Amino acid sequence: MQELLERLLEKNRPLTQKGKLAKYIPELARQDPSTLAVSVVTVDGETVTAGECPQKFTIQSISKVITLILALMDHDEEDVFDKVGMEPAGDPYNSIYKLEMMTPAKPLNPMINAGALVVSSMIVGGSVSERLERILDLVRRMADNPEIGIDSSTFRSELTTAYRNRSLAYFLKEYDVIGDVEETLELYVKHCAIALNCLDLARVGLCLAQYGKNIRGEQVIPRDLARLVKTFMVTCGMYNASGEFAIRVGIPAKSGVSGGILASVPETMGIGVYGPALDDKGNSIAGIRLLEDLAKEKNLSIF
Ligand code: GLN
């Protein structure tokens, strides 16, 4: 596996030159576009990494998986899916226009920004910091790493430039589907700024692969929720590239605009990838190809 990961990493690294860093969050534009890293943690306890694996990055949209789990632990499934749908959007992750098509506004799914804002607003807690602490606690337990925290420069950098997310939040507020706009936005941008490395991501993926049991065998989330979020990852996890990704790779996965990808092969392994150069849909350009090659070589497609 070590030799395989290194070979696939070097094969795909040149692709990083064809991608672009996310620039609308100024701090993300400071990442090194040539970075590429991958980690695999198997259910048999094998851990393999290649590339710049120790490098930390912010989780961005991958946090939508974590907040959805927590919201579903806090509320009945019906209450959550009353406010946010279960259908792929087929639009960019920050798109606003389909929100207008339903009254009251109901985002199509929890993996697009509008849906994730609704989900964040449902996380229970007395203050933004208490609610954030609960999200952090969950991700730390899934990754079995108590050190995971927030990157405050990325948080500040995004909050001051969150024009699109702020407009999505105000639109949702008009129909009262979220609580206080600025609080919701602060919590959302903070959980997007959770910083970790690709080994942590692989361990989160392992936890989902083991139906909620982390690397130490601790049942961190209910079994059925692990199934539910992996299904969302298949249908909506790679934004409007989810269909092609399912065909070419066939692994439940969730990407973030920092270039991270969380992937989970049920009952087999968790995979974490980091490659900040993105394709035009906002997914790691080399990361996707690396996963495609790995899935083919190891026959990992779930289909
Ligand atoms: N924080 C980012 C945003 O809201 C997350 C988006 C992403 O990773 N695709 O724009």
Automatic annotation (TrEMBL):
UniProt keyword annotation of Hydrolase present: yes
Family annotation (SUPFAM superfamilies): beta-lactamase/transpeptidase-like
Top-level EC class: hydrolase
GO molecular function: glutaminase activity
Entry-linked Gene3D superfamilies: DD-peptidase/beta-lactamase superfamily
Catalysed reactions listed for this entry: L-glutamine + H2O = L-glutamate + NH4(+)
Pfam annotation, one family: Glutaminase
Listed EC numbers: 3.5.1.2
InterPro entries: Beta-lactam/transpept-like, Glutaminase
Amino acids binding substrate: 61, 113, 158, 165, 188, 239, 257
Quaternary structure annotation from Swiss-Prot or TrEMBL: Homotetramer.
Family (UniProt): Belongs to the glutaminase family.
Name the record gives this protein: Glutaminase
Organism per entry: Marinithermofilum abyssi
